[in-house]
Design brief:
about 250 residues, DUF318, 12 helices, about 75% helix, 2 strands, disordered C terminus, mainly alpha
C-alpha cells in the first residue's frame, strides 16, 4: 500500500526522502516508509506522463517503467522488513511546520517546477554531449553487449542524478541502446543516485545509507532487467508505430 501511495503524490526524489523520514519519525513502519520513498518519484502521474511524451507511441515503456519501479520499491520494503536493522536509522527531528496548506502547496509546486525544468535542460545537454563528445564507436561497443549496456546505463543514472521528471528525455536520446538498458536507466535513477545518497545520509544517517543504497541499486537493476525481458517476450514481433499496434 505504501508503494502504491507513491502514485498519488507527485514529487521528485528530493522531496520523497524527507517525507519518508517524517513518516518513520511519526511511527510508520520504516520498511513501508522506504517503499513509499522509492515509489513516489518513479510511478507518479507526472513522471509517467513525461515518459509517454518522451517516448511517443511506446506505451510499453511507460507500463514497463511503472511495473519495474513499483516492483523495486515493494521488494526493497519487504527485504528491509525482513532483514533490515531499524537501529541504524537516525531520523531528523524538528518542530511542526507552521506554514498554511496553501503556502506549502505553492512552495512545493514552485520548487518542483524549477527543479524539474533545470534538470530537464541539464539532462538534454548531457544526452547531446554524450552523442557528440563520446565517439560513436564507443557507444556502439557498449550498446552491442547487452550486459555491459545495462550496467553502463544503470551506472550513468547513478552518476548523472537527473530528476525523475526529466530522465526519460535523456533515455530517449540514447537510441543505440536496447529498451531493457534504457529501462534500467529509468528505474535505477529515481531509486539511487549521488544526490539521493547524500540526502539519505543527512536524514537517516551514514550507516543506514551504506546498506540501503547498494540494496536499492541491486533490486532496482534486477527489477528493470526482469520486466524488460518479460516485456520483450510478451510483445514478441509487435512493434509500436505512432500509437498503433502493427503485427
Amino acid at each position: 500500500m505504501a508503494g502504491l501511495a507513491g502514485a498519488a503524490l507527485p514529487g521528485c526524489e528530493c522531496g520523497s526522502v524527507p517525507i519518508a523520514g517524517r513518516l518513520a519519525q511519526r511511527g510508520a513502519s520504516p520498511a513501508a516508509a522506504f517503499a513509499f520513498m522509492l515509489a513516489a518519484p518513479a510511478i507518479n502521474p507526472v513522471v509517467l506522463a513525461a515518459t509517454a511524451v518522451a517516448f511517443p507511441g511506446r506505451p510499453d515503456i511507460v507500463i514497463a517503467r511503472f511495473v519495474a519501479s513499483l516492483m523495486a520499491a515493494v521488494l526493497v520494503g519487504w527485504i528491509w522488513a525482513r532483514f533490515g536493522d531499524d537501529d541504524l536509522l537516525r531520523t531528523a527531528t524538528g518542530g511542526e511546520d507552521a506554514s498554511t496548506p496553501w503556502s506549502m502547496f505553492t512552495t512545493v509546486a514552485a520548487h518542483d517546477f524549477l527543479h524539474a525544468g533545470g534538470w530537464l535542460v541539464l539532462g538534454g545537454m548531457t544526452a547531446a554531449t554524450l552523442q557528440v563528445a563520446v565517439p560513436r564507436t564507443v557507444l556502439d561497443v557498449l550498446a552491442g553487449n547487452e550486459v555491459v549496456a545495462i550496467l553502463a546505463l544503470a551506472t550513468l543514472a547513478v552518476v548523472l542524478a537527473i530528476c525523475s521528471e526529466a530522465d526519460a528525455f535523456v533515455a530517449v536520446g540514447l537510441s543505440q541502446f536496447s529498451t531493457t538498458a534504457r529501462l534500467a536507466f529509468l528505474v535505477v535513477g529515481p531509486a539511487v543516485d549521488v544526490k539521493l545518497v547524500a540526502l539519505q545520509a543527512g536524514v537517516f544517517g551514514r550507516r543506514f545509507t551504506a546498506r540501503f543504497a547498494p540494496l536499492a541499486f541491486v533490486v532496482a537493476l534486477g527489477s528493470a532487467v526482469v520486466v524488460g525481458l518479460a516485456a520483450g517476450a510478451i510483445t514478441g514481433n509487435i512493434t509500436w508505430t505512432e500509437g498503433i499496434v502493427v503485427r
